Amino acid sequence: MWRIFVSDRIHEDGLARLRAAEDVAEVRMEPGLDPAALAQALAQGYHALIVRSRTKVTRDLLAAAPSLRVVGRAGVGVDNIDLDAAKARGVIVVNAPEATTDAVAEHTLALLFAVARHIPRADASMKAGRWEKKAFQGIELAGKTLGIIGVGRIGAAVARRARGLGMRVLGYDPYLDQATLAARGVEPVADLATLLARSDVVSVHVPLTPETRGLLDAQALAQLKPGAIVLSTARGGVVDEAALLAALDEGRVLGAGLDVFEHEPPGATRLVTHPRVVATPHIAAQTREAQARVARDIADEVLAALRGARLRWRVV
User: Fold this and answer.
1) Beta carbons of 30 and 6 less than 8 angstroms apart
2) In terms of DSSP H, where are the helices of the chain?
3) Active site residues
4) Residue among 289, 284, 221 nearest 257 (CA)
5) Quick check: is 263 in a domain?
6) What percent of the chain clears pLDDT 70, i.e. is strictly above it?
């Protein structure tokens, strides 16, 4: 009989799936534990751990949980899990990469509209009792070129929506061949520099890895078409925040829509409070529908891992 610990809050649909399983003895959800308390809890013989992005599954935490067989990430990114340590201990890591695709893609476009039409600033102005019509001249998206960095599930979903707006869509992904990129609805480009130079809007959809950390640094941002918009709903750290702030201050970047930050919460930094930045608190996946799907998906995947069944989304 399996014992499952959920250390970050997930939708009740997923908990109900776990509790209804005949081979599950206990499902304990206790969000907000500090690392020491979580390690102490897992040491009590739990076989599975389900996390979101808050819990850090470190080498020490894994070592404190000798009965652990699987870690389930309720979402896509697994940069909060020490994959090498999990693999070394024989702990399976699974995620739920499909459940939030539509939510993140829609939020990406929401940020783009908000930046292009100055919607947050115009709304704040109205709420302050002002009528500053001339202060908020925006730009149209129809006819503009969107460059997508990373054409996986979410990048392809953004591409489909952008084409519906009349945008031209370029795509760069070193792990996909040109035929696959074309099939996903983007015009393939050979290198990042070409995409940056041709794009009016650049949207980042890659995981945070040693290779992608600081991908959009000062050198890359200098290659952008002047007056471009930068969007990131992927992972903090992919965009060099100091370099982006400098590009905004200098006017080389027209605006930015950011849902993720290198340090979360970032506080009221100069980047967050910049007048041409629309910032949201890592909420791209936060829809009622997506959170219910992700909870169901990760519950099913964790149960499959415990039972030794075929896995759809095994990471390691």
Assistant:
1) yes
2) 12-20, 35-42, 59-63, 83-88, 101-116, 119-127, 153-164, 178-183, 192-198, 218-222, 241-250, 288-307
3) 235, 264, 282
4) 284
5) yes
6) 100
